[in-house]
Design brief:
The chain has 127 residues and is mainly alpha-helical. It has helices at 3-11, 14-113. The two termini are 42 Å apart. Residues 95-127 are annotated as: Disordered.
Length: 127
């Protein structure tokens, strides 16, 4: 198989689109990171001031949480399979958009890497 055939086969697969979508999502979130870091640094003093009070509140809730944990864990395990499928589908859809948008940019690169075709000889009939 030629490289172009292999690339086409790969780019038509859902896992390829899911990986492309996940990568695009990661880039989007990384771009948001500096802004979120700045916001958290601005709130640092406020957060540390409230920390002791929140710790006392959570200590009382820990016992109730421990009792409910097995049931909640089972429900979460049931839900996670469905959620994983949804996320996979969203990444695949997002990846299709990213690949389609960039498809026109990648096409010349694929043509360059494809093996060159030899020109065919044509013979003229003598009259």
């Amino acid at each position: 198989m030629t490289l172009a055939t292999e690339v086409k086969k790969l780019t038509e697969s859902k896992p390829f689109y899911a990986v492309a979508g996940a990568g695009d999502y990661a880039v989007e979130k990384l771009r948001e990171l500096p802004e979120q870091l700045h916001k958290l640094q601005a709130r640092r003093q406020e957060l540390t001031k409230d920390l002791p009070e929140k710790a006392r509140t959570l200590t009382g809730k820990a016992e109730g949480f421990a009792k409910d944990f097995p049931g909640k864990a089972r429900a979460y395990a049931d839900e996670i399979g469905h959620k994983a499928t949804e996320v996979y589908e969203e990444f695949a859809s997002r990846g299709r958009k990213v690949v389609t948008k960039g498809d026109h940019q990648a096409a010349p690169e694929l043509e360059e890497s494809a093996p060159a075709k030899k020109p065919t000889r044509t013979t003229k009939a003598k009259s």
